[in-house]
Fold this protein.
Amino acid sequence: MSFLKNLWGDLEVQISILTLYCSASFSEIFSYTAYRQLSQMFLAIIFFHSSEYILALAVHGKSNVNLKSLLISPSYLAAMFFSLLEYLIEIVLFPGMKEYWWISNLGLVMVIVGEIIRKAAIITAGYSFTHLIRTNREENHRLITHGIYRFIRHPAYCGFFIWSVGTQIMLCNPISMIGFAIVVWRFFAQRIPYEEYFLRQFFGSSYDEYARGVPSGVPFVK
């Protein structure tokens, strides 16, 4: 009987510790820090994708736009799910990591700046901007070299790169920050040469001259 009493006493202690730990974990998940950072994240995602779709409708018309203009793919959803999972694990196990507000605020600034650059690119290019790479030149397709394109050759890609990495800095997610930077950079490092092959076919020496004098906007991509 004494053995059972001791066993039950140890079990009660373990349950009490687990209860306190779970209570602390939930308090971290529903803290002001988590509320603010996750709210900013979800608002950034909602605004980004809804504004992409609305601008596509405004420029190209409803008949030429589908849900692909929301720019939501399975790989994108998986990346966002991983970043959310990282955030929840870290705020429970290492809550102090999320309290570096100067880092989180830097991420918020990057999200806003990236959004402005990308939307300026879409609005400036107008009909010449599409979410899919054109492989055939259309009548209204023009080489855009004014506005933000005077300073950045691919401002939409530049803006998305800044935005995507900024979302993870805003959450103080070190693993996802590095992962997003690598994956997004590799995507654009492959996409830009492919796209520019067709742009050179469309615009010839005019594009060559433009490309020589204006950076791509994505680090280490010529």
